[in-house]
Structures are given as C-alpha cells and as structure tokens.
Design goal:
Strand order of the largest sheet: 12-26-13-24-23-30
Protein name: DNA-directed RNA polymerase subunit beta
Number of helices: 12
Function: DNA-dependent RNA polymerase catalyzes the transcription of DNA into RNA using the four ribonucleoside triphosphates as substrates.
Helix content: 10-25%
Number of strands: 34
Number of domains: 4
Radius of gyration: 35 Å
CATH superfamily of the largest domain: DNA-directed RNA polymerase, subunit 2, domain 6
CATH class of the largest domain: Mainly Beta
Oligomer: single chain
Cofactor: Zn(2+)
Subcellular location: Cytoplasm
Keywords: Cytoplasm, DNA-binding, DNA-directed RNA polymerase, Metal-binding, Nucleotidyltransferase, Transcription, Transferase, Zinc
Structural class: alpha+beta
Shape: extended
CATH topology of the largest domain: Dna-directed Rna Polymerase Ii 140kd Polypeptide, Chain: B, Domain 6
Distance between the termini: 84 Å
C-alpha cells in the first residue's frame, strides 16, 4: 500500500477509497480494461495531474457522448468497419464492445484531445468526432451555420426556440391549457439543419420566412428595433391567436350547501348590475362566439353566505347568496372559442371557458431569428413607404446594420444568403452546423440566377423615390414571433390598492400594482440631486403618513379624539406635532418597540 504523502488519491463516485503510487499507469490500465470489455463501457476514468487525483465515475446523471478512439494518430475505425456497418454485419453497439468507440463524460473529456475531422489527426490526438454536430445539444444544433456564431449568441438563439409561437399540437382546438398560442400560416425553414429532420420539426413549424434588408430606416430601427412592412402584416405575417382558459366549479360545503352556476338576481349580495350579466345565458355561462371585454363575467355563479343567518321573527331563514362570478383577466379580451362542461375529480360540476384573441404584430412585440438576433418592432411602415429594389421587391423586415458586428452572428448573414439562394433555386439549403453548404456554392447559385453573389442589391427610397447610395444586403431569413406580446405587458397606475401591512402599493399587473421604484433607482436620483423627485417617489406616491411625535421625548403619540388634542404616552407633553414620514418607517419603529428597543425621533422646526 502506497503512503498518502506521495501518492495520488483515488475516488470512486466522489468517495475516497485509497491511494496509488503510479496513477497515470493505473489510468492507462483501466481505460484498456474498459475498451476490452473487462469493466463497464459507461465507466469514466479521469486523472487530474494538477491535484494528483484519479476520479472514477460510474453513477447516473452524467452526460456522455460517443467518440472514435484514436491510437498513434490513426482512427481505430477503418474503411472495412464502415463497409460492414453499411451492410448491416456490424452494429454501433458492436463498435462500443470492441473498444473502437467509447463514451466520454465532461470530466474525462478534459484529458482528451479530440479532432473534428480525420484530416486534422496528429500523434497527440486521443479521439475523433463521429460528426462535429455531436458537440451540440438538440436545440442548438437546429441553428444553421452555428459554427460561425459567437457562443453567447448561440445560447440566446437556443433559448428563444422555446419562446417561439408556432403550432403547439394539432389538437390545439381540444386542449384546455391555461394559456396557449397559435401562429397563422407557419412555414418550413428554407435553411434547415439535419437535426430538424430527426425531430420532425417541420411537421409543427414555428417560423415564417421574411425578406430581410439590413439597413437603417429614418431612425425607427435604432439599436435592435425592427421595421415591419404594413402590407406584409395585412397579408398575415406574424399574426397569431392567443387562447386563455377560465374555469369555475360548483364547490360543495359542509352542511349540504353548494355553489351554483346561474344568473345572479338583485337579492344576491355583491350584485353588480344588469349590464354586467347580459352576456350570460340562463345556465350562467357566457354564449359561444360572444365577444368579451376585460373584466367581463364569463361564468355567473352564486355561493352560500359565509356565516349562518339569524332566524327571523316568523322562524323562516331566507338564504342570502353572494355573487362569486368568474371574470376575464385584465387586458385579455376576445371571443368565446369553446365551452366545456364536465365534472371534476371530486364529483363537482366544472365549467371551462376558452377565450380566443387575435394578436396582430404591433409596436413593442418581439421577434427573433435563430441566431439570437432579437428585437422589438420600432415601427410598422405603410407598404408605399418601404424601400424597394429595381424589380419592385419590398422587404418584410428591416434590421439595423449595427446589430451584426458586435454580436458577431456571421451565421445570420450566411442564412440570409442561403435563404435567398434557396428561393432562387426552389430547394431547401442544408445549414447543418459543421456540415453546411459552403458560402462559395451559395454565391454560385446567386450568380447563375442573375444576382450579385455578395447578396447586395440596389434599393430605392420608398418615401422620396431616390436611389439609396450604396448597396443593401438582403435575403430571406426564418424569423420567429416570440410570446412576449406588448399587449400582455402594458401596465400603468395612478392610484389603486395598497398592502395592508406596509400600506405601500400592491405588486403585479393583476393586482393593479405599481412599478417598484427600488433602492438602485433611488440612488440614481440621489446622484442627479433630484431631491424633490426622490421625496415624491418614496413618500408622496408610496406610503406617506403624518403621525403625532412628541418634541420632548421623541416618541410617536396619538390623537385623543375626546379631549381634542395630541397626546404623548410617556410625558403627557403638550408639544406634540404632526410629522410626515413613510408608513414603512413607522412600522420599523413599532417592530423595534416589540423587540424591547425604544426608538426616539429628534424633531426640529422645518427650515
């Protein structure tokens, strides 16, 4: 047994099990044993030279990927193996068993030198990629020409696949999700990745192919803002439906009482007035295809009283029911799309109302390409004012040239070129990362079709009709409409409800809350010396309160209504004055008193 001082620590699944004098030799032997099938093919052996530790991992939860084993600068898989694979004499599992392919996790991969291509192989290489696309996840490998993008933008692009509005499922009309989206006229992408075929994404498309010009437009697309063509929007570009589900149930209560779907009568406690219930049928449910505004009632329901009524002098109890109707949420009007009447798991009557709203692209809505080039609409321009080419082509979308250099999304530019070539040739271009159609080939297609191989075109200004100086890079890019709709985010408040504890405005759009002006925002006002604005935001617009404070002992007193004077609870002084403060501060004083600390305020005359 080797001594702990000079030897490497050996860990199995994170547990120290012993020491070894020659860890590099041990690593070599263990890897050979794995390749020969003596130990499991899913075990990973990683030696960390800097810390002199050997980690052996066999536990679950590790992400592994297959790589071809390389020895002496040569791939272990020969032409003979490939031939046998094609003929079906060998399977992938056989190659793993023979030790020609092995699974590496991220820890063992740190000690490996992996070649992307067989041409790159040298003496130092330990493994070879089966295909470089194996480096990427399913989502990120769907980004065309990804190898030309910066890693950060690849992550952005992958994240926004999950936010894209498309077809969630062909049974969308039967589903009762809380909320859902459906894109009108979704299209296949003109530039695809092989991964898209594997997961069959074109059966549920989530993009539309936009004609995109990269140019500024009268300052409306400053920074990341986008310009949309009004004509294209009128033809259905970027249009979608938003579905919202509302549900109500006839709850049963102890004592045999229950809620009831019905039209509330005037005797009902909390009756709102006849006009509020006019859209409901006799069963208390809203009519199909009826238009409902925000805060309209969709399910009329009454509930039994919270407390038992007293018996009247005649010994009769008239139950006064209360209104507990279900209303639509703020800012979410639409048509009644579907009404489902069923039974819940506990046997109660359950009603579900599905509201359908058509959402047209508007200023503030978010769009994104697959390369993380996201932006909100800055203006929707009439088709007559859009720039046009000599052939009369008008772009659907204009993006700013400044959004490209700092983001280094060259993949976006290549997709623009490839989309244009695909349109001209009438076929779908392969943009699979590391296996994509080369730029030279795309340029050749454009040249054959009579276009400038650079993808640039001469444009004329739609407003003045004059020729625009210089040429504009234009092509076709698959753009996604994301579910960040400005109509669902708009929020404003002047006066409204406050929290009971702090008396500060409530939080959240649904509760008619305010926008939090926090500490950091307050610091900016301090930095600008805007003392009056600071006072207004933190006191006047928040939780201003005037409390009587004793000048002598600095303690908050109270108003004695009977004797009509302000009273100090400690010294009974007559010098008690109203002091303006935040209610949150008064709450802090109360909490300190509860802890046994006596806070005192030193007050002086206002200068």
């Amino acid at each position: 047994m080797a001594t702990a001082g000079s030897s490497a620590k050996i860990y199995i699944n994170g547990r120290l099990i012993g020491f070894h004098a020659s860890p590099e030799k041990l690593t070599e032997e263990l890897v050979k044993s794995r390749r020969s099938g003596k130990i499991s093919s899913i075990a990973n052996i990683a030696y960390h030279k800097d810390t002199n530790e050997l980690y052996i991992n066999t536990d679950s939860g590790r992400v592994q990927r297959p790589l071809i084993v390389v020895e002496n600068g040569k791939s272990m898989i020969t032409e003979e193996h490939l031939k046998q694979l094609t003929e079906g004499k060998l399977s992938f599992t056989d190659l793993v068993k023979e030790g020609l392919i092995e699974y590496l996790d991220s820890e063992e991969e740190n000690n490996a030198l992996i070649a992307l291509d067989e041409k790159e192989l040298g003496k130092a290489h330990t493994h070879l990629e089966i295909n470089p696309i194996g480096i990427l996840s399913v989502v990120s490998s769907m980004i065309p020409y990804l190898q030309h993008n910066m890693a950060g933008k690849a992550l952005h692009g992958a994240k926004m696949f999950k936010q894209a509005i498309g077809i969630c499922g062909i049974n969308y009309n039967l589903r009762t999700d809380t909320e859902g989206y459906l894109l009108y006229y979704p299209q296949k992408t003109l530039v695809k990745s092989k991964t898209m075929d594997f997961i069959d994404i074109n059966a549920r498309p989530q993009v539309q192919n936009f004609v995109v010009a990269i140019m500024p437009y009268y300052g409306f697309n400053t920074l990341d803002a986008l310009i949309l063509n009004q004509g294209a929007v009128d033809r259905g570009l970027g249009r979608n439906t938003y579905f919202r589900m509302y549900e109500g149930r006839e709850q049963r209560y102890p004592g045999g009482q229950a809620d009831k779907f019905e039209l509330p009568t005037e005797e009902t406690v909390g009756y709102l007035g006849e006009e509020y219930y006019k859209k409901l049928g006799d069963d208390g449910l809203v009519q199909l295809e009826q238009f409902v505004n925000e805060k309209d009632i969709v399910i009329g329901r009454t509930s039994p009283p919270r407390f038992l009524e007293e018996i009247s002098e005649f010994g009769v109890v008239k139950e006064k029911r209360r209104d507990s109707s279900v209303t639509t949420r703020k800012g979410k009007s639409g048509f009644v799309d579907k009404i489902v009447l069923t039974e819940s798991a506990d046997g109660n009557k359950l009603a579900k109302i599905k509201i359908r709203s058509t959402m047209l692209p508007e200023v503030g809505d978010k769009f994104s390409s697959r390369h993380g080039q996201k932006g909100v609409i800055g203006a929707i321009v009439p088709e007559a004012d859009m720039p046009f080419t000599a052939e009369g082509i008008k772009p659907d979308l204009i993006i700013n040239p400044h959004s490209i250099p700092s983001r280094m999304t060259i993949g976006h530019l290549l997709e623009t070129l490839a989309g244009k070539a695909g349109c001209m040739n009438g076929n779908i271009i392969d943009g699979t990362p590391f296996n994509s159609t080369p730029q030279a080939e795309l340029e050749e297609i454009l040249k054959e079709r009579g276009f400038d191989p650079s993808g640039k075109e001469v444009f004329y200004d739609g407003v003045s009709g004059e020729k625009i100086e210089g040429t504009i890079f234009t092509g076709v890019v698959a753009y996604r409409r994301l579910f960040h709709l400005v109509a669902h985010k708009m929020q404003a408040r002047s006066r409204g409800p406050v929290q009971i504890l702090t008396r500060q405005p409530t939080e959240g759009k649904e509760k008619e809350g305010g926008l939090r002006f926090g500490e950091m925002e307050g610091e900016t006002l301090v930095g600008h010396g805007a003392a009056m604005l600071l006072h207004e935001k933190f006191i006047e617009d928040s939780d201003k309160v005037a409390l009587p404070v004793c000048e002598k002992c600095g303690i908050v007193g109270w108003n004695d209504v009977v004797r009509k004077r302000k009273v100090c609870p400690v010294c009974d002084s007559s010098k008690v004055y109203d002091v303006e403060m935040s209610y949150g501060f008064k709450l802090l004083l109360d909490e300190l008193k509860a802890l046994g600390i006596m806070p005192k305020l030193s007050i002086t005359d206002r200068a």
